[in-house]
Amino acid sequence: MLHDPNRVYVFDTTLRDGEQVPGCQLTTPEKIEIAKELELLGVDIIEAGFPVSSPGDFQSVVEISKAVKEPTVCALTRANKGDIDAAVASLQYAKRPRIHTGIGSSDMHIKHKFNSTREEILERAVEAVKYAKKSVEDIEFYAEDAGRADVVYLAQMVEAVIAAGATVVNIPDTNGYCLPDQYGAKIKFLKENVKNIDKAIISVHCHNDLGLATANSIAGLQNGARQIEGTINGIGERAGNTSIEEVVMILKTHQTLGLHTNIDSKKFYELSQMIRTQMRMPVQPNKAIVGANAFAHSSGIHQDGFLKMRENYEIIRPEDVGFPSATIVLTARSGRHALKFHLERLGYTLDKEELAFVYNNFLTLADSKLDINDQDLQGLMAHRLVKN
Ligand code: KIV
Ligand code: ZN
């Protein structure tokens, strides 16, 4: 079968990078439940854990491998034999196993984390890939802190690990440092200067320390990467990882990018709620795509425009991400049009004069309350009937 050059593979690391967040730890049954939902969502790869880190994580990778059929199941390792042996053992039941091994690639990490040299680190990277390849065919290599790495050295490392058998090369912006054009240029450089790059897929793995994870991931895709790594709700270390729902909806909304995934976006909202509950990590109300306010229109100008034609203020339909529906929130900033819309929804039809009278009372009430609910509206209408 011919490889589709415009297909973007989605690598979910909610259960690994996401689960590293303090307070977000999950039990194995909870991880299995989430993994099954990720399979239904259509992710291509599930990073199920870091098996050497604890017996519980090891067992989770074993059980997830048994529970899912379609996605590749991936286990994280550092570049050493002990980690790789544990990962191989944990993946024994996986239909499509992948080992994700790697090492630091920036001078900062080489000197101050490994107290080593570029040459030695390159050797360790190649050894790890070769060792993992003896047991598992699909090997992803991560060049940790690639965002801050010297691009020529990075290219050398990428070329060497592909020659050693890596099928995917992950270029993480581990510290969320890069600007989108810098990150995009890095991917472009690898695409143009690594001579065996066509033998592997370039993956983007961005962190959100400067709020640029999604923008950087898109820049990577625009410059030739074809795998994106992220989490649901963008959870992850510090400021989090790239939010999968954001990247997928950007690709859907901007068809001119010419890229597509296998994701069923209608499942996003439900899965987001599930992750929020199980991981005890609230979703900020203004979070793109899945936040409580993502489809809530509250100012009079927007409400009026939205009620005339939803596309005036909506670039994504709520139903496309499984969101219950768009909402017109009634506050002191709402106009007559929004009030009329809600009153009609409750079965009241008012002429212009009546609406003006109720609207005045509504404004007085709305100034003293955060938002107005159906009961408040019914109260306003009862008051109008008494006056008449
Ligand atoms: O952010 C990072 O560099 C990682 C690697 C382990 C892939 O999570
Ligand atoms: Zn990460």
From TrEMBL:
<dbReference type="InterPro" id="IPR002034">
    <property type="entry name" value="AIPM/Hcit_synth_CS"/>
</dbReference>
<keyword id="KW-0808">Transferase</keyword>
<keyword id="KW-0028">Amino-acid biosynthesis</keyword>
<dbReference type="InterPro" id="IPR000891">
    <property type="entry name" value="PYR_CT"/>
</dbReference>
<dbReference type="InterPro" id="IPR054691">
    <property type="entry name" value="LeuA/HCS_post-cat"/>
</dbReference>
<comment type="pathway">
    <text>Amino-acid biosynthesis; L-leucine biosynthesis; L-leucine from 3-methyl-2-oxobutanoate: step 1/4.</text>
</comment>
<feature type="domain" description="Pyruvate carboxyltransferase">
    <location>
        <begin position="8"/>
        <end position="269"/>
    </location>
</feature>
<keyword id="KW-0100">Branched-chain amino acid biosynthesis</keyword>
<dbReference type="GO" id="GO:0009098">
    <property type="term" value="P:L-leucine biosynthetic process"/>
</dbReference>
<keyword id="KW-0432">Leucine biosynthesis</keyword>
<comment type="similarity">
    <text>Belongs to the alpha-IPM synthase/homocitrate synthase family. LeuA type 1 subfamily.</text>
</comment>
<dbReference type="InterPro" id="IPR050073">
    <property type="entry name" value="2-IPM_HCS-like"/>
</dbReference>
<dbReference type="GO" id="GO:0003852">
    <property type="term" value="F:2-isopropylmalate synthase activity"/>
</dbReference>
<keyword id="KW-0464">Manganese</keyword>
<keyword id="KW-0012">Acyltransferase</keyword>
<protein>
    <recommendedName>
        <fullName>2-isopropylmalate synthase</fullName>
        <ecNumber>2.3.3.13</ecNumber>
    </recommendedName>
</protein>
<dbReference type="Pfam" id="PF00682">
    <property type="entry name" value="HMGL-like"/>
</dbReference>
<dbReference type="Pfam" id="PF22617">
    <property type="entry name" value="HCS_D2"/>
</dbReference>
<dbReference type="InterPro" id="IPR013785">
    <property type="entry name" value="Aldolase_TIM"/>
</dbReference>
